[in-house]
Design the sequence.
């Protein structure tokens, strides 16, 4: 996030806290500090906070940077699919099958007698 957006976000938070004070306690901190709501300095502060709110609307529509990074990593993983097995070459079971078939046929021959 750029420095401009950080400052704008800080001013929006200050404005939100001021509105919270007005809503809960009927206390306007900006007006108290700068001599009332009608003073030029208070109006400038209100205007800057308002412009900061407009600038930070962009944050609502910007994709989450962490989610974008994760999406990029997953996309690259699926593109580079590796179909190799973890254990290398496949084992040859022909000899084991032949041996078990011989044993099975020997046991069947024994049962006949």
Sequence:
């Amino acid at each position: 996030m750029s420095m401009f957006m950080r400052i704008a976000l800080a001013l929006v938070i200050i404005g939100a806290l001021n509105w919270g004070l007005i809503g809960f306690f009927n206390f306007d901190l900006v007006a108290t500090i700068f001599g009332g709501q009608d003073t030029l300095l208070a109006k400038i502060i209100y205007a800057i906070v308002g412009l900061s709110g407009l600038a930070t609307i962009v944050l609502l529509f910007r994709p989450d940077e962490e989610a974008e990074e994760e999406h990029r990593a997953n996309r690259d993983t699926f593109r580079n699919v590796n179909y190799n097995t973890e254990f290398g070459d496949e084992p040859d079971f022909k000899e084991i099958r032949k041996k078990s078939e011989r044993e099975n046929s020997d046991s069947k021959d024994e049962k006949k007698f």
Observations:
- Helices lie at 3-25, 29-34, 40-61, 65-79, 94-112.
- Residues 3-25 form the longest helix (23 residues).
